[in-house]
Specification:
Radius of gyration: 43 Å
Largest sheet: 5 strands, antiparallel
Number of helices: 7
Shape: elongated
Protein name: Ubiquitin-specific protease family C19-related protein
Strand order of the largest sheet: 5-8-7-13-12
Keywords: Membrane, Transmembrane, Transmembrane helix
Structural class: alpha+beta
Amino acid sequence: MSSRITSHQLNNGLYVSGRPEPPKEKAPTMSSTAVPYTGGDIKKSGELGKMFEGPRKSGQLTSGPLRTGSMGGGNTVHSGQISSHSMNRMGSLSGGVSGSGSMKKTSSGPLNKHGEPIRKSSGPQGGGLTSASRQNSGPLPPVLPATGLITSGPLNSSGGPRKSSGPLDSSSSIKSRTTSMVKNQAVTHLSEEDTHSFFKGFPRLVFWSMVLLFVMGFIAAVFILAAVGNPILLIVVVVLFAIVSLAFSWNVYWGRKAIINFISKYPDAELRTAKDGQFVKVTGVVTCGNVPLESSFQRVPRCVYTSTSLYEYRGWNSKPASPTHRRFTWGLRSIERHVVDFYISDFQSGLRALVKTGYGARVTPYVEESAVIDINESNKDMSPQFKRWLAERTLSGDDRMMRLKEGYIKEGSSVSVMGVVQRNDNVLMIVPPPEPVPTACQWTSCMLPASLDGIVLRCEDSSNPDVIPV
């Protein structure tokens, strides 16, 4: 039994054996053609110009996505706000899509919150694929307001910045500035303990040794007086105790003035010849660094040091400002002192050095404060600014005698700085000394030795309006 061999004819006329191969479907190819420069004339743009033949809705060009059908029948192109990037992409793809008709449908009308026209469709779309694919190139950019300006802050539903009606709340802005200053790491916050104190610099071992010697002397003098009846030792111990107590009281009361005199008499050094690690005193003009300060009450701008102190007078029945506040004296109730890094230009050499007083550095300021306002029962309602200042710090002002003092070092002031010179490459800096620097005894004024801790700042008259312009 024989089987018949099938054969078929090729396109060139030859007959070959075997069955003909099924026709292969040719995959659609995508080509990219260069878009000619039209100079802004849409009539010369080819397929792109047909998109704008119908009625158009003028508006601001944005970077919203362009929706087109993937293949097949009628494509829907939204005119209105389109980006140049989407136009170039559409022009390069319009010549390569096979089986697609010309862009015929255009839709204009109201825009949604993202700046795109609202698409309305009823029933299935025919003439091609049943579903349209959405093509996006890259991530979606943020929605810009209708004016095209890039603004800070949140946007409303229409894409523009939120607007608030009514007067601005100055107290909220002041609180935000105060909070930012407190949380800023570049600002050094000084407390009451950073002020000059005689007992703080005096050696505690020497102090307690003297106390022990006087106690033993009193005990021995009283024993000799009771046993022998000789009061000479007791008189000597009492006289010595009175002299030492008077010397301590003298140094406590005049100690700050003695330190200021020591700073003023200390010779100025020249930064050009100062060695690395040398303790120097530099006098020059102050220039603000990266973080300028503002005074708390008077709002003096461009400062490198600010100090605001609130004092209260305690009568017989008044409330104390602090646990150590004695009657019929002024006591410190609140203090705010801040200092940051700044520059100082030496008067002698003209060199400029960076003074490292920020970021929690040890600083001892000797800046004079001037009384800003005095409050008593008769004028307690005359200063709304002072009442607002108290309310921001949750301080009460109920029938108290108060005094507000403020001091500052503003840009352009003449300041004396004492610290250690540090040269790092081409940067000249003045940093705090590793240990407190002792002062010598001032025998003419009966002053005992004291110590200078950290960088010493001295400004004679901070409220002087005649500063050097920088």
